[in-house]
């Protein structure tokens, strides 16, 4: 298994992607001095006897309540138990593991005041496959992702449930089974663990990485659909896109051109095609897909910065023995990035569905109605197009920006919140919808190209057709369609469609 070394503040996007895809993580040992210095600073601050938020005071609206020294341990335990108030389905294990890694890297920057043993326990759980069961709902994205991170922290103190090898195990038993002792929280540690944007950021990164794969797959299926409709590759000419100058547009046009290079289908209608221009769903692929690529990269830059930041409160500055209260827990950057990714998922699906609709319409495609040799007796691809339309509509409704909403919490102390958590959580079902839409296009485009036999498409696109045909045969007569769609969507979501093309396709870096 790949092991990623987390160097706090300097983890590249590729490493977060690898962690989400199943890599293991270890903390860079060079972070140890900063962690120890931060914990020592908290001890010195406490010794001064002055009220410091979250260390010897209550939380949120109760920040003015002073807590006695002999109650500080109880204070930290209580905040975890009271804030572990999430609801809904358990968050996916890859997302929770990414959240744990993000929190680990944040704490290790030495600005949170936690002890080395606390960081070591979180790292041991991550490496040992002990994943806290974290209900997905309950965060408004400020003051941090309190409820989800409280569930993570509760597992660390032996409360709640931990997923081990796919089984839900009482947290205390899971820790004991791994030879780990439940954590007894020190001053500020409960607050440091459950305050921050790591839940929102993990979900947004997961959506980003899924969107990257789906964009690549949609370029492949879009090129295949262009071949099925005997569309032109002239709109992908580099001179057109150089005059506009958008990087994503230039790159996606280049990818589409490379995907179609050497196609016998394309060569067959170069000289005798009566059509002057193709529909926008074919002709404007670089403009639409390029714009989505540019937006994804902007979201990626925001999330890479957030993933390498410290977002709890207060922050400890060990060199001055100061605890400064601020608002780094406010997840507005994550919320806006998640909204951008949602728009991308929606737009890719929208133009993809238009190509499916074009292929099943003989007046537009020149192919048999609904891509079946015997229309009337067979319905062919009639209802898969309807399914794609339904999924596009769902994604349109889900794409409404979460960041424009706010609702006051904590007796109006927390009077403007980001809604980043559910803004990021919605990306997974949107991505699943898009995977199915692209899977349907893969099926329809391959079916359309079958009608051009014995002419073949390009080498890259024929490799993709071979990949599909190993799972799904050509459709002669109507059959149970659901398994075909599921098989095609699985190829899309796995990254196999982009991989089978054998070409470098544009990504996030």
Describe this structure in words.
With 509 residues, this protein is mainly α. It has 2 domains: 3-196, Fumarase C, Chain B, domain 1, CATH 1.10.275; 204-308 and 345-500, Fumarase C, Chain A, domain 2 (Up-down Bundle). The protein is built from 22 helices and 9 strands. The strands form 4 sheets. Strands 4-6-7 form a 3-stranded antiparallel beta sheet. Strand 1 (3-6), helix 1 (13-20) and strand 2 form a beta-alpha-beta unit. Helix 17 (382-398) runs antiparallel to helix 19. The chain starts with a strand and ends in a 9-residue tail after the last helix.
Count of helix runs? 22
Q: Biggest β-sheet, characterized? A: 3 strands, antiparallel
Tell me the Rg in angstroms.
26 Å
* CATH topology-level name of the largest domain: Fumarase C, Chain A, domain 2
Q: Structural class, please?
A: mainly alpha
How would the global form be characterised?
elongated
For the terminal residues, how far apart are their CA atoms? 22 Å
CATH hierarchy, class of the largest domain: Mainly Alpha
- Helix content percent band: 40-55%
CATH superfamily of the largest domain: Fumarase/aspartase (Central domain)
Which labels suit this protein?
509 residues, mainly alpha, Fumarase C, Chain B, domain 1, Fumarase C, Chain A, domain 2, 2 domains, three-stranded antiparallel beta sheet, two-stranded parallel ribbon, 22 helices, 9 strands, elongated
